[in-house]
Amino acid sequence: MNKNKRWLLIVGALVVLLGGFYIVRSIHYRDHFLPNTEILGIDVSGQSVDAANQKLVQQFNERQYTFVENDKKVLKVKGHALGLSQDFKKGLNQALNKQNPWLWTTSIFAGQKAHADEDPSINSVALKQFADTTAAKLNQGRQEPVNAKLVADGTQFKIQKEVNGNQIDADKLAKTVTTALDNHRQTVNLADTYKKPTVKASDSSLQTTERDMNKLAATKVSLQIQSKTVTVPQATVMSWVTNDNGKATVSSQAITNYVSTLSQQYSTINKTRQFNTQQQGTVSVPAGTYGWSINVTSTAAMILASVKAGQDLNKEVVHSGSGYATDGDIGNTYVEVSKEKQHEWYIKDGKVVMDSDIVTGKPNQATPSGVFYVWSKQRNATLRGKNDDGTDYASPVSYWMPIDYTGVGLHDSPWQPKYGGDWYKEHGSHGCVNNPPDFMTKLYAAVDEGTPVIIY
């Protein structure tokens, strides 16, 4: 074989070998990336989709995310701490399908950069845990948002503006992180996660409530108690007006409490009194049946209806009991009974009109002390009860004026031979005040129903 033929054979063999190598490599690059291929800045040359995906996932799992606030870095965390996992297979397959495996020789010298979209997967449980923990930690010492509200200012209600604060809302933090990850951002602004006031000064509903509350608070309330006029302070009326979930309303309990205070101050029932006696100076007399009180329930309901309607009120309180129409509580017309002196006086218009010795109850059945009143007048009544030995008694009397609700009263006693002194100790009544018949006739005629009877 001559020399030329030998070279042709060598050249031909080389061509066949190179062609075969080229074909084999081209087939190889059908499922592998070409030389000098970068995806998302990472070299994936000669790698399969699975190998390239693993490399990208490892790289991006180490990616750090920065949380900033007021241009300051507050926190840095890696993706896995946020519950983030990545999968690039879809984008890698797209990039692989776009490359021409027969041009691998060109890429050796030219290289190429391809794009593969991230397909992040977020573990919602892990993200929520991160958000809750981070919010709790960062919120220490932070200002909580304060809703706009209505406050009393002098004689009217005014809107107090809301305060934004800078506390972090864990749910907002989780959503903001999710949005950042979905948009391939590595920075999260904590200002976007602040808790916000739910009620603002600009809310029309709050402004309506302000107007309605001021209308109610401007109601003028005056109460007539006997000869007195009690004008309720405007600040007190304001304290009854409340904001009930955006609705101007009036507190019935607050009005009831106020009327209860008035009743304690002005009512006379169930109160011990200092009484200036005829012969024993000033004595303390316990409560009896005499006296009046404000009907708290009815009076409060009357006030409530007026304030709710925004209508001024000037009315007398609803009251019950005895002596309401009398100035100075007991007044200057009454019956006075001294158990110690065994004596009784009838005072009319401040002057003694008549008086007499009497007999009160035995020591073991003593006539009760107290301020009572004649609540009935009866002629020819029969008084019934028990004697000391347990036997029944029935005592007919011509004049009967009961003063309490247990059977005690003033009456004539024709069976008594004497009155006054110590006679009552052995011959006293079962609790009533025994009067001489002639005196009782005059007393019965003179005393009206409702007259106070003071026994001490």
UniProtKB/TrEMBL annotation:
<dbReference type="InterPro" id="IPR005490">
    <property type="entry name" value="LD_TPept_cat_dom"/>
</dbReference>
<dbReference type="GO" id="GO:0071555">
    <property type="term" value="P:cell wall organization"/>
</dbReference>
<feature type="active site" description="Nucleophile">
    <location>
        <position position="432"/>
    </location>
</feature>
<dbReference type="Pfam" id="PF03734">
    <property type="entry name" value="YkuD"/>
</dbReference>
<keyword id="KW-0133">Cell shape</keyword>
<dbReference type="GO" id="GO:0008360">
    <property type="term" value="P:regulation of cell shape"/>
</dbReference>
<keyword id="KW-0808">Transferase</keyword>
<feature type="active site" description="Proton donor/acceptor">
    <location>
        <position position="411"/>
    </location>
</feature>
<keyword id="KW-0573">Peptidoglycan synthesis</keyword>
<keyword id="KW-0961">Cell wall biogenesis/degradation</keyword>
<dbReference type="InterPro" id="IPR050979">
    <property type="entry name" value="LD-transpeptidase"/>
</dbReference>
<dbReference type="Pfam" id="PF12229">
    <property type="entry name" value="PG_binding_4"/>
</dbReference>
<dbReference type="GO" id="GO:0005576">
    <property type="term" value="C:extracellular region"/>
</dbReference>
<dbReference type="GO" id="GO:0018104">
    <property type="term" value="P:peptidoglycan-protein cross-linking"/>
</dbReference>
<comment type="pathway">
    <text>Cell wall biogenesis; peptidoglycan biosynthesis.</text>
</comment>
<dbReference type="InterPro" id="IPR022029">
    <property type="entry name" value="YoaR-like_PG-bd"/>
</dbReference>
<dbReference type="GO" id="GO:0071972">
    <property type="term" value="F:peptidoglycan L,D-transpeptidase activity"/>
</dbReference>
<dbReference type="InterPro" id="IPR038063">
    <property type="entry name" value="Transpep_catalytic_dom"/>
</dbReference>
<dbReference type="GO" id="GO:0016740">
    <property type="term" value="F:transferase activity"/>
</dbReference>
<feature type="domain" description="L,D-TPase catalytic">
    <location>
        <begin position="333"/>
        <end position="456"/>
    </location>
</feature>
<protein>
    <submittedName>
        <fullName>L,D-transpeptidase/peptidoglycan binding protein</fullName>
    </submittedName>
</protein>
<dbReference type="InterPro" id="IPR038054">
    <property type="entry name" value="LD_TPept-like_central_sf"/>
</dbReference>
